[in-house]
User: Which sequence fits this backbone?
């Protein structure tokens, strides 16, 4: 039914299932600070917030990649860089084999393929547009006739679980938080994207509503063959949604791998601490000791070497000097920790030849 | 852990907000008792009345717009009858409150140490020097690193976790007996949240505080509470020991909340056992059980009158007609899967 209503908006799989839908290479974005004009580091910003600092990963077609981390780790900046809401300082985003922003894939074509749902369901809707106008807006901008755009909007509104006859003419303030988030999801789907970035999309919802929206997201993924990037601070929700998980800390990737592997057998001390910080659900086995002390450091002046070394209980002097690269620690499982890097100077590192970081 | 006469007694507390377009009942007949040294978690979603209940205990609700009925006694004071000057003494020395956003609760233009010292001077008549010493002790007690230097910080110069610790220090400045906590860890990162929860648990034990802890997170309630009271649409629908609520929930809403949690037993990619529907409009509550429109086990009688409180076990009560019918076996069958 949606196939028939594509109306010239073409979405085609270019590289086949083996080619990643999204490849991110060395993506970097620093905010603020002053650019150096002279010296060895010309162009580099000093005193800047290093929000995303050399992040690389792939998202396979049809998978859900969960991204977890605390505030300031760069997960939301990463989402905004990928959607090109903000420009990157360095690095590239490759969508199904085509570099984004080139003649092969210009921004307007790219934005039909990648859409985003934000945390604040109210702030992300225009208060002066009805639900129907909100959902039809994107298709209209991209050249769909008004009548067809409205038809598509009604179809999507019903697919996200709202009755178009009751909700199409309502304004955002007439909806509950869960209903507004459903409208945001419908709007994101209106251009028939292939990648949906969900940035804390269920975090502001009440628990009983959160479960409904998570179920909806699972259903829509199957129905439309979508790929998700699911950003959340809630490990329980990430465990439920994700095939693979990427853990970020202060603008860098700490660990990346299959969800069931990472959450059951984490290799990076930060992932371990994050898991151990989750409140216990057993009143007889409460947490007795906080896994980490203090707050995450300020990303303006991140610690040298491994950025986690100031809070890590396994840290040795070498951790303050050497920044660990993401190293293979298992099948499709990588961690950026000197304890996992063969031949690093960390006493707990596996033996082997040193690999250049 | 708990003993002696109750320090907080609330009976039939009802709060109506008037003056808006439609009057609405935010809290409807809440009964609470809390003994010294006991931690009670008020668990509920937005609009369930948990924060309004806390504010009624502090008498922070706007007098003209909030019509309060019922009995509220804290440490021998009839809170509703307190005069303005008694209220000033009551707040801070008998009862104190910490909030979700320390950035808003702390004054941005005064140094944090001065705010604490001011409270001590005002309530205890201490000299400035004594008050500063007290503030330093408190900062050390809540484990703020380099406490002496941090006293001279403004709120914006502290990180989120440290601000929350500073607010706890401020709340404890005048040695209150009852601490009210309104989602104090919700805005914090996971690794910081657990630190603050452990700190609160430690302070509560050492100072023998009675704590009412409002949260929407069952996990947080499990970490901190001796007893849990589950609120829905202004009413307490179930109350009992933390263990009983988590392991053998009696009310369908509590059972539904536990069953719908992601990350429980269900496999990835499966479906969550979500509670259908949305919470009711507080200005237009159904005459019967407020949860009935969303309840899987709804019966005609549910829609007629608000169910009476039924006792299920030791200090474990719930408002559900299935329980008043007295079929404990039926309940176990219904919620067997969540335990």
Assistant:
């Amino acid at each position: 039914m949606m196939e028939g209503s594509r109306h010239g908006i073409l979405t085609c799989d270019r590289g086949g299932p083996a080619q990643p839908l999204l490849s991110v290479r060395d993506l970097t974005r620093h905010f603020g600070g002053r650019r150096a004009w002279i010296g060895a580091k010309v162009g580099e910003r000093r005193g800047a917030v290093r929000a995303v600092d050399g992040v690389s990963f792939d998202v396979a077609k049809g998978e859900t990649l969960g991204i977890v981390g605390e505030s300031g780790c760069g997960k939301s900046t990463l989402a905004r860089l990928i959607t090109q809401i903000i420009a990157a300082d360095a690095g590239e985003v490759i969508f199904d084999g085509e570099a984004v922003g080139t003649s092969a894939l210009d921004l307007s074509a790219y934005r039909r393929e990648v859409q985003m749902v934000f945390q604040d369901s109210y702030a992300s809707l225009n208060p002066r547009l009805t639900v129907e106008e909100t959902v039809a807006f994107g298709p209209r901008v991209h050249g769909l006739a008004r009548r067809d755009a409205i038809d598509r909007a009604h179809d999507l509104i019903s697919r996200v679980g709202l009755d178009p006859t009751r909700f199409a003419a309502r304004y955002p303030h007439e909806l509950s938080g869960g209903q507004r988030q459903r409208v945001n999801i419908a709007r994101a789907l209106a251009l028939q994207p292939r990648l949906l970035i969900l940035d804390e999309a269920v975090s502001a919802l009440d628990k009983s509503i959160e479960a409904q929206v998570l179920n909806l997201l699972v259903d829509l993924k199957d129905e439309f063959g979508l790929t998700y990037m699911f950003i959340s601070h809630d490990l329980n929700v990430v465990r439920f949604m994700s095939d693979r998980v990427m853990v970020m800390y202060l603008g860098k990737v700490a660990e990346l791998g299959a969800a069931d592997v990472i959450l059951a057998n984490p290799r990076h001390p930060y992932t371990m601490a994050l898991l151990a910080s989750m409140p216990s659900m057993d009143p007889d086995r409460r947490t007795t000791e906080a896994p980490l002390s203090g707050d995450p450091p300020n990303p303006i002046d991140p610690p040298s070497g491994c950025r986690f070394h100031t809070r890590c209980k396994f840290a040795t002097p070498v951790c303050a000097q050497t920044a660990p690269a993401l190293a293979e620690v298992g099948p499709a499982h990588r961690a950026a920790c000197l304890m996992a890097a063969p031949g690093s100077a960390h006493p707990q590192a596996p033996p082997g030849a040193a690999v250049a970081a | 852990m708990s003993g002696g006469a109750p320090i907080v007694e609330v009976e039939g507390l009802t709060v109506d907000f008037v003056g808006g377009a439609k009057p609405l009942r935010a809290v409807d007949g809440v009964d609470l008792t809390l003994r010294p040294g006991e931690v009670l978690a008020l668990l509920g979603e937005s609009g369930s009345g948990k924060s309004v209940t806390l504010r009624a205990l502090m008498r922070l609700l706007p007098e003209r717009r909030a019509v309060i009925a019922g009995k509220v006694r804290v440490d021998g004071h009839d809170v509703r009858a307190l005069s303005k000057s008694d209220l000033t003494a009551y707040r801070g020395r008998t009862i104190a409150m910490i909030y979700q956003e320390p950035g808003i609760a702390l004054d941005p233009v005064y140094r944090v140490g001065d705010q604490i010292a001011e409270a001590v001077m005002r309530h205890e008549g201490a000299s400035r020097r004594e008050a500063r010493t007290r503030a330093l002790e408190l900062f050390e007690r809540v484990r703020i690193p380099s406490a002496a230097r941090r006293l001279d910080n403004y709120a914006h110069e502290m990180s989120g976790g440290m601000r929350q610790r500073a607010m706890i220090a401020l709340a404890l400045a005048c040695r209150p007996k009852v601490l009210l906590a309104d989602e104090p860890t919700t805005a914090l990162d996971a690794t910081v949240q657990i630190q603050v929860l452990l700190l609160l648990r430690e302070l509560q034990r050492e100072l023998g505080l009675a704590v009412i802890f409002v949260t929407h997170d069952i996990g947080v309630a499990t970490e901190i509470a001796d007893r849990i009271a589950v609120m829905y649409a202004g009413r307490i629908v179930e109350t009992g020991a933390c263990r009983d609520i988590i392991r053998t929930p009696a009310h369908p809403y509590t059972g539904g909340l536990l069953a719908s949690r992601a990350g429980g037993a269900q496999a990835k990619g499966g479906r969550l056992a979500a509670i259908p529907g949305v919470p009711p409009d507080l200005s237009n509550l159904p005459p019967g059980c407020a949860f009935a429109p969303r309840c899987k086990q709804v019966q005609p009688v549910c829609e007629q009158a608000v169910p009476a409180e039924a006792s299920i076990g030791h200090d474990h009560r719930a408002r559900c007609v299935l329980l008043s019918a007295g079929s404990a076996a039926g309940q176990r069958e219904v919620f067997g899967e969540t335990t």
